[in-house]
Amino acid sequence: MSHSTLKRRQTHQVQVGHVMVGSESPVVVQSMTNTDTADAVGTAEQIKALSDAGSEIVRITVNSPEAASKVSEIRSRLDDMGCLTPLVGDFHFNGEKLLKEFPDCAKALAKYRINPGNVGKGVKGDEKFAYMIRTAAEHDKAVRIGVNWGSLDQSLAKRMMDANLTSANPKAPEEVMKEALIVSALESAQKAVDLGLPENKIILSCKVSSVQDLIQVYRDLGSRCQYPLHLGLTEAGMGSKGIVASTAALSVLLQEGIGDTIRISLTPEPGSPRTQEVVVAQEILQTMGLRSFTPLVTACPGCGRTTSTVFQELARDIQHYLRDKMIVWRTQYPGVESLNVAVMGCVVNGPGESKLADIGISLPGTGETPVAPVYVDGERKVTLKGDNMATEFLAIVQEYVEANYGAGGKKRNEAKVIPIRSA
Hints:
Elements: E1 7-8, E2 14-16, E3 19-21, E4 28-32, H1 40-53, E5 57-61, H2 65-68, H3 71-80, E6 87-91, H4 95-101, H5 103-108, E7 111-114, H6 116-119, H7 122-138, E8 142-148, H8 154-165, H9 173-194, E9 202-207, H10 211-223, E10 230-231, E11 237-238, H11 239-255, E12 261-262, E13 266-267, H12 276-287, E14 296-299, H13 310-332, E15 340-344, H14 350-356, E16 359-362, E17 372-376, E18 379-384, H15 389-405, E19 421-422
Parallel strand pairs: 1-19, 4-5, 4-12, 5-6, 6-7, 7-8, 8-9, 10-12, 11-13, 14-15, 15-16
Antiparallel strand pairs: 2-3, 16-17, 17-18
Helix pairs in contact: 1-3, 4-7, 8-9, 9-10, 10-11, 11-12
Domain IspG C-terminal: 297-398
Function: Converts 2C-methyl-D-erythritol 2,4-cyclodiphosphate (ME-2,4cPP) into 1-hydroxy-2-methyl-2-(E)-butenyl 4-diphosphate.
Family: Belongs to the IspG family.
């Protein structure tokens, strides 16, 4: 099936601040801070950085009175910076207490995330859940009911395990646990509706850490409701492991039209920016042809023909340059996110790939003439040589963007995004 014929699973449309989540809207990228929310300045700065990187919704931890008391200030600081990104409050054991004691927090958040397994047990847990849902309804807020493999409601799990033991055709324990995740999400959503929260205010998630389990759970969950689904592996991991696992799981589901908002739960490597999880989420969607966020750079992997590191350095520099520029370009040059740039390392595929890109440079390989032809819209424009090739090529890219995506530009507002139709 080609991308052009992909169908999104039909869902309700849920408004989170100014962002719409659901099958009639593009798949939304979100992220989560790792600052202490009680540090209003540090948290606001990280949210702004995540937003600048392209996160369309940002979740923050609200776990203490100190954190809850700062949410309104964080929202105000973001507004003062011109950052309108909606905030999600991540509540667990004491969410109802914090919402009750800090009404400004309840108002400042665009969405509440509630984990049914961590609200509480029995009647007391039901009362806590009800208070949080009624508060959301009172303030016209969305709610994500987020079930997690590591904090599943144990009373529900035991009830289902006991029923399975007496079944004529008992299932494997792991299958019962996966079913319990889905039942927890659906039963909690129905409770929320019964308490007065409209269906178009509810988003569901059932997060696990195994790729195959995630795919199975979301396929089943998606077939049994019309709520928008939040996708993501929980505790995906660090570095390439987390990126590969998240990409493998989410790509399968997105290809099947399942998923309306995604978050990549990467463990940051020491010193690495929090924004990496946003970049990975965007690149998953863009490489699948679902959305465009930033110009793509095509670059060869290198081989014995490319013993020089010039093309590697240029590919890296141009990728960083384009992503940094997008903070301004996304509003100044509409459609520029669909730009394609090629940085190739030798004569084998270099000219061909460069001609296919909007702008391409074919750098000399080992033993080749030390010149680099530059192609613009398939035509050879200029040949670069010397130590300033990188600077000169970046200047050509900037000139191309201004000419084609600026006012009166022929490619302005022409995004090369493949549409995804609703089922």
